[in-house]
Automatic annotation (TrEMBL):
Residues 1-145 form the TAFII55 protein conserved region domain. GO terms for cellular component: transcription factor TFIID complex. This is TAFII55 protein conserved region domain-containing protein. Belongs to the TAF7 family. One of its GO terms (biological process) is RNA polymerase II preinitiation complex assembly. CDD domains: TAF7 (cd08047). GO terms for molecular function: RNA polymerase II general transcription initiation factor activity. InterPro entries: TAF7, TAFII55_prot_cons_reg. It holds the Pfam family TAFII55_N. It comes from the Eukaryota. It comes from Vitis rotundifolia (Muscadine grape). Keywords: Nucleus, Transcription, Transcription regulation. It is found in: Nucleus.
Length: 165
């Protein structure tokens, strides 16, 4: 398996990258590509030639698979892609979130909100109490002040939450 990511650039930068990759001669003004990130690991700079563009590392809402073929008939999976590097023009604002809201294609617009279940509202104190009781039960003890119905309901909720992750 290879390590891969999606590189999303504005159309003007895409033309320059394509020109750089297609030309064999060294007469191009864009002679180099560079990508470097700051200490936070999420923001960085994309350099093409002498021009610097801001870049951000974003998590995609779902995992993508990439494939390659050697004989135009058999596809071989090469990687699972979960992140995208988004290069912006100089004046564009940086995204304030870590996860990109949309997928790569129009049907995946606002994918996290439209296609995935919402997190259940669980009381953190109830979860801590049930976890403590479960650890006591597994150690050979008994649960403290617990109604069996509440315990079973809590176990079912925790089990569903673990399966979803």
């Amino acid at each position: 398996m290879e390590e891969q990511f999606i590189l999303r650039v504005p159309p003007s930068i895409a033309e320059r990258i394509e020109r750089l990759l297609n030309e064999n001669s060294s007469s191009s003004e864009d002679k180099s590509l560079d990508l470097s990130f700051s200490e936070d690991g999420r923001s960085g700079t994309f350099v093409i030639g002498n021009d610097h563009f801001p870049a951000s590392l974003l998590d995609l809402p779902c995992v993508l698979e990439s494939y390659k073929t050697y004989d135009d008939s058999v596809l071989i999976k090469t990687a699972d892609i979960g992140q995208m590097i988004m290069v912006r023009e100089e004046g564009d604002t940086a995204p304030d979130v870590v996860e990109y809201r949309h997928g790569l294609t129009p049907p995946m617009r606002d994918a996290r909100k439209r296609r995935f279940r919402r997190e259940p509202d669980l009381n953190p104190e109830l979860v801590r109490r049930v976890e403590k009781d479960l650890l006591n039960i597994m150690a050979g003890g008994t649960a403290e002040n617990v109604d069996i119905l509440v315990l079973l309901t809590s176990l079912l909720l925790l089990n569903k939450k673990k399966k979803k992750v």
